[in-house]
Design a protein that fits this description.
Elements (H helix, E strand, L loop, with lengths): L6 H83 L7 H84 L2 H10 L8 E5 L2 E2 L8 H9 L13 E3 L3
């Protein structure tokens, strides 16, 4: 509790400390806002990268599905043509050796073509299965990154809101204390704050300056104890002194 021998200096000290807390809070808020932009930008880029990977895999899977349908249709067409050729072959209508040879060559060519399509289709089905597995993994990763982004944005917003409320409270406290300060002390603070790095008045601690810790001469200490309207300065650091317990 501050003694009543110089309540105005006590008030100035509270004003000074409130301003210092406000400065710290404002700095934290600025850092949080700047950090939020970087953190969220990084996470957003990760989400976009995962979405791009998902879209590419979706496109590749769709292409493979179309290609497989085409190959299946070609296999069915070759199967139908082979049935027709075999019907003709065993119908007994082909008697000329040359015509028979041509028919057999056509059947062999269709069988080769059909076998090639079937082999390619099997390879593509395996590739499609692999791509679909990659797609499922990519979709899961994209969803996880989006969840992380949403959670991070909410957490950062919570911290920013908390700091904004704290700054608003401190601004109100500073304004109330400033209105209560005598004009002389307000002027003293304004003239001294820049040179003294925002600490213009300090309490005495064990008969030493609360800032520079130099022992206060007895005569100066006595003046501080008597109080009054003036500000007694530390002879070493130039800050105002007051006694508290």
């Amino acid at each position: 509790m501050v003694m009543d021998n110089n309540p105005d200096l006590s008030l100035l000290y509270r004003y000074q400390e409130a301003r210092r807390r406000l400065a710290v809070c404002a700095k934290q808020l600025a850092a949080e806002v700047e950090g939020r932009q970087k953190i969220l930008a990084d996470l957003e880029e990760r989400v976009r990268a995962a979405q791009r990977a998902t879209e590419q895999l979706q496109t590749e899977c769709a292409r493979l599905q179309r290609e497989n349908r085409r190959l299946e249709q070609e296999c069915q067409d070759y199967e139908a043509q082979l049935r027709d050729l075999e019907i003709t072959l065993y119908s007994g209508k082909i008697s000329a050796p040359k015509e028979l040879e041509q028919l057999q060559r056509r059947i062999a060519a269709y069988q080769t073509a059909k076998a090639g399509r079937e082999e390619k289709l099997l390879n593509q089905l395996y590739l499609l299965e692999t791509k679909e597995q990659e797609l499922a993994k990519a979709e899961k990763q994209a969803a996880a990154r989006q969840t992380k982004l949403t959670a991070a944005a909410a957490e950062v917003a919570r911290r920013v809101d908390s700091l904004q409320q704290r700054c608003a409270q401190l601004e109100k406290e500073v304004a109330e204390l400033e209105r209560a300060l005598p004009e002389s002390l307000k002027g003293f603070y304004q003239r001294s704050t820049e040179a003294l790095q925002g600490i213009v008045v300090v309490p005495i601690k064990d008969e030493t300056c609360g800032f520079c810790h130099v022992i206060i001469p007895p005569a100066v200490l006595e003046k501080v104890k008597k109080g009054g309207s003036g500000v007694i300065l530390c002879e070493n650091c130039g800050r105002g002194l007051f006694e508290q317990k």
